[in-house]
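User: Can you help me understand a structure? I only have the sequence.
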Amino acid sequence: MKAMGTGWRRIGWQDIEITGGGKPTVRMEGNATRRAAMLGISEVLVTITHTDRSALVMAVAIGEDDS
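Assistant: Let's start by predicting it. Here is the structure, written out as tokens:
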């Protein structure tokens, strides 16, 4: 949501899914798909790390360069 310049008010929690089983991948639906298309985002890279007390996720939205 933040990587696409919005918060949870414009994109619902159920519009973005992180799938695992190895490299985490992002699956988008609904408003997330529409927002990504509007911004020219073709891929979202995600990394996840955790300890027994906390977790951290970093997402980077990648689009095509128009220049």
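Now, to help you interpret it: The mean pLDDT is 88. The CA atoms of residues 40 and 67 lie 13 Å apart. Let me know which part you'd like to focus on.
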